[in-house]
Amino acid sequence: MADTRSPDVPGDEAERLQALRRYGILDTPMEPAYDELADIAGHVCEAPVALISFVDQDRQWFKAVLGLPLRETPRSESVCHYALQHSGVFVVPDLEQDARFAHFGIVTQENPLRFYAGAPLITPDGHALGTLCVLDYRPRVLSERVLGLLSALACQVVRLLELKRANDLQGRMLADLEAARQQMAVLAHTDALTGLANRRSFTERLRQELALLQRSSEPACLLMMDIDHFKRVNDMHGHHVGDQALQLLATLCRDVFRAADVVSRWGGEEFLALLPATRVDQAQVVAQRLHAALAAHPLSGIEPPLVLAVSMGLILLDPLRPLDVTLRLLDSALYTAKREGRGRTVVV
């Protein structure tokens, strides 16, 4: 009498399911490479139904289907579930005469399937993920030669899986490399502490603006800022508070300046801001907004709260004036602001 018990779930079932998910094959679209292997299996075995089946936790899902209008069935009605337990091809000459399968829907349907042969899809590390199987509407047997060919085709399915996994891994590696490249590009142009443009990238942008100004009548301004008494902040509160002061100024600059403006940490506690399409009177308004923002946002975590101030120099960019001359004039205006009492803006 045939054994009607379902085979036990494999002892490595958790690892097997993890392996199945590593390949990322479940619920993917049909692909010609898999369809062709199923078609060849059906032709070699002279079977009207051929499947590439992956046995998931509660279902079997078909990557390739020849001769059936299905993409998955419950695992409780999966003959392939039994095939996972065999190292070779699992053959059922007559499903109707086997008590394990006689009640399955594919056997009790109007046009019942009677024959099954499934070669397990075994990964290089020994996990059976599913089968390459063939079915027929009549009881039958297969020759040893044909069974060997079915096993060979199952190995080709596994090679496709390995190729997919390698391609997926390569794709992830390329995506990671591109993300790292973009991050390096950002870091190369960004001040690490404040997140603003660094001196190198700002100089490049400034030279571009000067070139544009030679072909345009629109004005542009350059603003130099220096935190007042910054050395005293470091000496009295420590360099970590000095870093917080630089970060606070950077944050307020992002709030005050426009998206089209470019703000840079020029060096130490010195900042530069490029204001395209901006007249001097408009730039003075922006500078005053920054003075007000600093007065309204003291540096937290210090008792009494530390109110920062900046001295600024402001100049209208002249594309015919050498950049080093412009920067010297701006620097001179900045130190004039400091001599005149700090916390103010001087226009060249």
Verbal overview:
Helix 10 links the parallel strand 10 and strand 11. The chain is built from ten helices and eleven strands. The chain is rod-shaped. Strands 3-2-1-6-5-4 form a six-stranded antiparallel sheet. Helix 7 packs across helix 8 and helix 8 crosses helix 9. It has two domains: 159 residues, Beta-Lactamase (2-Layer Sandwich), CATH 3.30.450; 149 residues, Alpha-Beta Plaits, CATH 3.30.70.270. It has 348 residues and is α+β, with helices and mostly antiparallel strands. The chain is 44% helix and 20% strand.
Topology readout:
Blueprint: H1 13-22, H2 32-45, E1 49-55, E2 59-66, E3 72-74, H3 79-83, E4 90-92, H4 105-108, E5 115-122, E6 128-136, H5 144-188, H6 199-213, E7 220-227, H7 230-237, H8 239-256, E8 262-267, E9 270-276, H9 280-296, E10 310-316, H10 323-339, E11 345-347
Parallel strand pairs: 10-11
Antiparallel strand pairs: 1-2, 1-6, 2-3, 4-5, 5-6, 7-9, 7-10, 8-9
Major beta sheet, specifics?
A: 6 strands, antiparallel
Radius of gyration: 37 Å
CATH topology of the largest domain: Beta-Lactamase
Total number of distinct structural domains = 2
Query: Helix/strand-derived class?
Result: alpha+beta
CATH architectural label of the largest domain: 2-Layer Sandwich
Number of strands: 11
Low-confidence stretches: 1-6
Give the overall form. Answer: rod-shaped
CATH class of the largest domain: Alpha Beta
Beta fraction: 15-25%
Q: Ends: how far apart?
A: 104 Å
CATH superfamily annotation of the largest domain: GAF domain
How do the strands of the widest beta sheet line up side by side?
Answer: 3-2-1-6-5-4
H/I helix tally: 10
**Residues in helices, as a percent range:** 40-55%
Order of helices and strands: HHEEEHEHEEHHEHHEEHEHE
Mean pLDDT: 91
